[in-house]
Structure formats: structure tokens, C-alpha cells
Specification:
Layout: E1 6-9, E2 16-19, H1 49-62
Antiparallel strand pairs: 1-2
Length: 67
């Protein structure tokens, strides 16, 4: 069985993207699991790949780490 994906809309930029984090049943993780974890953000929901990568980079820069 392959992972199931949802089509979601990014709350930051409005673009649509595929998300498999909620429903992956075959042990495959969503693409977002390849990125470092973010600090908790209440109520924002899933971000598209571009917005999530930018936010990860911003957090790393704020902490003095490179991505």
C-alpha cells in the first residue's frame, strides 16, 4: 500500500500542495519530515514546501545555525 496524500492550501502564501503526513500508512513519511523540525507554532497548520523551507532557514539564521 502506498502513502495517502491530502491536497492542502498553504496558510501563508495560498498555494496548493500535497501533504502525506497525516495519512501515510506504509512507513513513508511526508516530504516535510526531510526538513529540521520547527519550534511549535499554534494554529498555523501545514505549510507548502517553499514557505516551510523559508521558515526553517529563518529560524536557523535566528539561532546562528546554517541550514
Amino acid at each position: 500500500m502506498t502513502g495517502i496524500t491530502h491536497h492542502k492550501t498553504c496558510p501563508r502564501c495560498g498555494s496548493e500542495f500535497s501533504c502525506g503526513a497525516d495519512l501515510s500508512q506504509d512507513g513513508h513519511a511526508c516530504w516535510c519530515n526531510d526538513l529540521p523540525p520547527l519550534k511549535y507554532r499554534s494554529g498555523e497548520g501545514c505549510l507548502c514546501p517553499g514557505c516551510l523551507r523559508a521558515l526553517v532557514a529563518d529560524e536557523a539564521a535566528a539561532e546562528g545555525k546554517g541550514v
